[in-house]
Amino acid sequence: QVVTLSLLMYPVLRSLALQLHSAITGSYVSGTHSIAFINCLNEQIAKDIARAIMDKKLAAYVNILPKSSALYFWKGELEESTEILLIVKTRTSKIGELSNYVRSIHPFEIPEIISLPIDQGNPLYLKWIEENVPRD
């Protein structure tokens, strides 16, 4: 029972330890922030989703990249299309909420929503992300 409780508490304790480390040392803890990639059918949908993400304060910054060609398998068939890509900068702790929200508003049956942790970067930029995306 104690082991189960401690395993359930691990993410919370790890998060608190990382926040404490960062506050004491003033250094960036790798993985505190993430970049999420979200594909969209067209520019209007991309702008609408980007604005909705920003309105919910789920990101500090969203890039909307122009049309790109895409090849993928869908229901056993090779498909080709054009897409608009969103690149979202946010706290790693917000990725789950971001993903759930985007799935609720995205027109695709299975939208691409993937993320990668930010290992390192300009400390001032990373601090700016932190200041513009509220904590959980």
TrEMBL record:
Signal peptide start-end: 1-17
Q: Which GO terms describe its molecular function?
A: copper ion binding
Tell me which UniProt keywords the record has, alphabetically. Signal
Q: Which SUPFAM superfamilies match?
A: GlnB-like (SSF54913)
| InterPro entries assigned to the protein according to its UniProt record, in alphabetical order | Ion_tolerance_CutA (IPR004323), N-reg_PII-like_a/b (IPR011322), N-reg_PII/ATP_PRibTrfase_C (IPR015867)
Q: Which domain of life is it from?
A: Eukaryota
**Tell me, which GO biological process terms does this entry list?**
response to metal ion
Parts forming coiled coils = none
- Has the keyword Signal been applied to this entry? yes
The entry assigns this protein to a family as follows: Belongs to the CutA family.
Q: Which PANTHER family match?
A: CUTA DIVALENT CATION TOLERANCE HOMOLOG-LIKE, DIVALENT CATION TOLERANCE CUTA-RELATED
Record text on subunit structure and interactions: Homotrimer.
Q: What is this protein called?
A: CUTA protein
Native source species = Cepphus grylle (Black guillemot)
